Structure formats: structure tokens, C-alpha cells
Amino acid sequence: MRIKRFIILSLIIILVFPHKCMASDTYNIQALIDEFEDGTGCKSVSVVIYDHGNISYYGDKDGLYQIGSMTKSFTGLAAVKLINEGKLSEDDKVSDYISGFEVFFESQKVDITVGQLLSQTSGFTNSEKDYPSAAEEMTLQDWAMTMSGKELKSAPGTEYNYSNVNYNLLGAIIENVSGMTYREYMEKEILDPIGMKRTFVGYPDASGVQVIEGARLAYRRAVDYEISVKEGRIPAGYFYSNTEDMAKWMSAWMNTDDISEEFRGPSEYIIGSLAKQGGYFAGWERFSDDVIGHSGGTPNYSSRIVISKKDGIAVCVLTNLNVAASTDSLCNTLYAVVSGKEAGPITKDVWTVFDIVFSLISVILIGLFIVLLNVKNRKILLGIGVLLIILLVLVLSVFPAIFGAALTEILLVWAPWSMTGSLILLMVNILLIIIKQVLGGAKLTLSSAARLRTVPTEK
Q1: pLDDT tens digit sequence for 350-395
Q2: What is the pLDDT, as a whole number, of residue 275?
Q3: Contacts of 305 (CB under 8 A, 6+ apart)
Q4: Mean of the per-residue pLDDT values for the chain?
Q5: Burial level of 128, CB count in 10 A (0-12/13-18/19+)?
Q6: φ and ψ at 280, to 5 degrees?
Q7: 346: left (phi over 0), alpha (psi -120 to 50) or beta
Q8: What is the Cα–Cα distance from 277 to 286, expressed in whole angstroms?
Q9: How confident is the model over 10-69, as pLDDT tens digits?
């Protein structure tokens, strides 16, 4: 009788709370997070899941992470808020708000509109070589003028090219339209109304906050790594936040009917624009019907958010390591399993692959150095030297072309330390060969001279 009652009670619980019971039986969120940490070497991962009004946290919900390009959705919302208030228009030209600003395509002067900045169709790209980010001492306005006079890669409005330039320019426009600094406007008009008290425009300057230190891969380990936040780069990627505040952000997008008209109008404008034109708008990507999101990746953090108002599910992942593809994969996997969909394995990020490969190359190059110390045959040394120089030239030319950045920026800012270490070891081996060749040649010359002195002469 007791067993029968237990079975009946269990069936009632499953029928009344089906999602809760299935969730605990069919997937383990923490196990997926652990798998991510094991695969990437990431030390700190924080996750927040919004599931039909229920919010769950994993990891440190108070610790602050740099959220990278997820910042663009805040900048995009601010710009659209100004549009909604009639202070700005998608058809307005950038030069209307940044005095003296001009750009060219195929050497002809062209205009970029606010709408093209929002949709990433301005003609700018993310190439640091062509469009350098702001230096340490630059304000947004200073940096904006360094973009004036640039040649665009495509005609405005014709091609999608993701670029931080577009959203930093939007930041400068927000300043000039509002009469406030970008930081002041974002805090007063965007963050405070939503109640995001622990989201910061740039590096947190408040007392009593905990910043999760960023990290960088180095020989299969994540080592602490911090870089300064430059004012002229903030609108495109340098907010700090935690999962508790990101839960408020997700709730705002989920429950637009329950928030103020001040936020509802711009958010509906953005959702409508994404549905109408698809692709990208105001710091959001449209992945499929009613599913939007965005990723973030800086040299020492990565993040991702996915939201479906229709399904009532949203997921945000914050990590303190530059493994953007793996972070995207973890977020997508969590979203899939919470939605009851099939999910694939967590993807390996390119920097994780590079760290594995260059860690192995470093070991090989150390071994080669030891071997070269004992090689005396000059022809063998020459052959190895030629091969190593060819490899060095390939690295020096191919990687800047692939990543669209200077090799110094790749090696000293973005890539795992193992890649930098391998390049140093490669050059050390080449230098060793050169030294041995020079010394070997000198010894050969001395030996020849000695033989000449010992040859008898006829009288």
C-alpha cells in the first residue's frame, strides 16, 4: 500500500512539475561546466540560466567579469533609445554628429549612416592594421577623428563586416547627441533604470566589488593576465558585469511588458529590426526565429548570451579566459539541454588548439637545441638552418595575414604564451646554427692556414 501511494505521489509530482523533474534526470549543468573547465583550463566560469521565470546560478554570481562584445548590446540600446526619442535617426550621417568626419571608398568620399553602424554594414572591418583601436591616452572623440580619412573595404550599406569601429563610433555619437560622457549616459539612462548596480562602464571603480582576474593560456595552464581598459574602446567591448546583473538584463528582454515604456519602446524596435532584416542589429545577432544573442571575447575573457522570449529560456556564460569558441559552445549546449533539444560536444577553441600544438612544438625545439649542440657536420647544420628559417618566415607572414593584426599584437596580447615561447625557441635554434657555422668556418680557416705554414718550400 505504501509503495502504491509512493508511485501515485511520484506521478503527481512529475505531472505538476514536469520540467523540474526532467531537468534533474536528463542533464547535469555542473557536469557540462566541469567538462568545459577541464577542456580549456579555465579557472573561473559563472553561468546564469533563465528558465520560464526561474533563475539558476552556477559559479560565482557576484564576481565581475569583462563581458567583451556583449557590451555592444548596451551601446546599441542606448543609440536606439535616442532614435526612439527622436534625437537621432538611422538615416542620419555620422558626419552630422562628429564634426569633420569623412571616409572614402575607392578614393571617393562617401557617407556612413547611424543605421549602417548599428547593422555592421558601414564598410569598416575589424582589421587592427587598417583601423587601429584607441591608444591609452585617447578619448572617444580623439579616437573617432583617427578614423576620419580612412578608406573603407566596401561601400557603405552593401556588405556585412563585423567591426568594433562601428560601436565605438556610436559611443562618440551618443556623447555628442546627449551632451553627456558615454559613461554618464549609460549609467543614468540604461543601467540604473534596469537596476544593474554591479555593471560597470569600463574597469570597476566602486569599493567592495570583486573582479575576477582575467587569464591567458600558457603551456596548458591558465595564468593570470590583465590588460588596461582604454576609454576609446569601451563602447564596443569593455563593460564589466556579473551573472546576477546579467539575470536582470535577460529578464528585461524576456519581460518587456513588465518594464517601463522607456525600455520597452527601444527593445521592441530592436527585435522588430532583427525580424525584418535579420542578421545583426544594435549589438544582437539573430540566430533563428525568436532566438537572439551575442558573444564576447577579449585577450583575457570570453562570454556569450542566448535569449528566446518565445521559449522562455535564456543562458549567459562568463569566463575569465580567452576561449571564445568554447564559451560559445558551452552556452549553446546549455541552451539546448534546457530547451530539451539535442546538444553536441563542447567545441575546442582555436587558442586551445594553438596552445596544445605550440606546447608540443616548444618541447621539440628544446630537444632540437640539445641535438644541435652536438652536431658538427656543417652541411647538416645548414640544411636544418634553412628549414627553420623557412618556418620562421612562414610564421612571420602567415599569422598576421590570418588574424589581420601585427605579429607583435598577436604574440604579446592575444595568442597563448606557448606560441610566443615557440617563436623565441625557434629563433634561438637558428642563432645557434649561425654561431656554429661561423665558428666552424673560422676553425676551418685557421686549420687551412696552419697546414699552409707546415708545407716545405723548395730552395
Answers
A1: 999 999 999 999 999 999 999 999 998 989 999 999 999 999 999 8
A2: 87
A3: 70, 73, 246, 249, 250, 293, 294, 314, 315, 316, 317, 331
A4: 89
A5: middle
A6: -140, 135
A7: beta
A8: 10
A9: 433 334 334 333 343 335 899 999 999 999 999 999 999 999 999 999 999 999 999 999
